Amino acid sequence: MLVKIYGADPTGEKRYSPTECIGAVKHRVEGNPDPKYVSTSFAERQNLNIRMGNRRMTRLTNAFSKKAENHAHMMAIYFMHYNFVRIHQTLRVTPAMAARVTDRLWEMSDMVKVLEDWETSETG
User: Fold this and answer.
1) Which end of the chain, N or C, is less surrounded by CB atoms within 10 Å?
2) Structural domain containing residue 44
């Protein structure tokens, strides 16, 4: 895995100017992956889906999360909807159904029930 190291913020127009990459560090990641599933395309497509489907990931918009806690909550809602409620065009089912995590299509009310059940178990 290649981890890039960035320098200090640029002078001048800070919001639009990227910082300079001043180096990179290689970290060894081990395992036994299936070569047919090893591709940066999968990660890049997921990143694009998140950015396009969730404006909290886009800087300089009024929806951008400034508090980490609010951002974490929104990402949890996004992924719950993405995996359990939204039917994907190529799968023709939700990812949770394709992975056999659930056998039915969820609705938004099911997501609310999960949250309410969790809150009840935390206080009880």
Assistant:
1) C
2) 2-32+40-123
